[in-house]
Design a protein that fits this description.
Layout (H helix, E strand, L loop, with lengths): L8 E4 L1 H7 L7 H13 L4 E6 L12 H8 L6 E5 L3 H10 L3 E7 L2 H8 L3 H18 L4 E7 L12 H13 L5 E5 L6 H15 L3 E6 L6 H10 L4 E4 L19 H10 L8 H6 L1 H7 L8 H5 L15
Parallel strand pairs: 1-8, 2-3, 3-4, 4-5, 6-7, 7-8
The structure holds zinc ion.
Length: about 325
Amino acid sequence: MNSASTDVLISEVGPRDGLQSIKSIMPTAQKKVWIDALYRAGIREIEVASFVPAKLLPQMADAAQVVEHAKTLPGLTVMALVPNLKGAQSAITAGVHKITLPVSASAAHSLANVRKTREEMIEEVKKIAAFRNEYAPQVKLEAGIATAFGCTLQGLVPEDDVIWLAEQVIAAGADESGLSDTTGYANPAQIKRLFKRLKAAIGNKAGAAHLHNTRGLGLANCLAAYEEGVTSFDSSMGGLGGCPYAPGASGNVVTEDLVFMFEAMGIKTGINLDLLFEARQPLQAGLPNESIYGMVPEAGTPKGFVPASQSVYS
Ligand code: ZN
């Protein structure tokens, strides 16, 4: 399968969003085996780690080693999350292809998550962009708008704040800005409205949909975003994930279910579902005490199912 001929990009965030939000620490060797299995299934963008102090997130202490390994996989975009300039410097030194910086539209979540105001985070984007431009101009910089659909601390997040922040981070030098439902509050109507406004505000710099399944609307929200023209989706194998500073915000959209939905609809992901299901084994082996989720891996694909990426018409 040729990734150039896919219709949507599935960006696997499990090794970062998933592993950082659970107590168990997956051994480095097991992370590498899992990432290899995801790659074998056809995943071509993986958020492999976050560059944060190990005392805050011991699950991510091996970030540089994991990046080094992931970079051996040809054609894989190796991403890392960074909370600030220092993290960005470490990630760029480690050799990532793309960095993503979460910028909270909720003032309360911004302070809790990164101990900075939204205005201070815009300044941080400027500093990161300047560093990137000077030392690693090939590295892509994404600033994702976190808590874009509501916040467990603040409650309502005004839509004008979300769009304002997206415009600011692009003006500050980010290459793209997507929207994150960090708390799993979004509904499909809200998704459509905000992604439409995002596109009107920043055009082709509108980035990925990062949606959680906390209230069971994850797939419906992804479909709504797709119908609004979004083609890049973050998801997590087994639905691992959440945010340690957004209480109750569990569960990214399950990669396996998302890939099934698109493939069943004739929308090519470039991902082989059987190999994707196999990649759950190293995940579970690395986290023997954690539950992993997924409806389609449990039920299996329908009899006679022909995925779009393997269709004779592709
Ligand atoms: Zn998330």
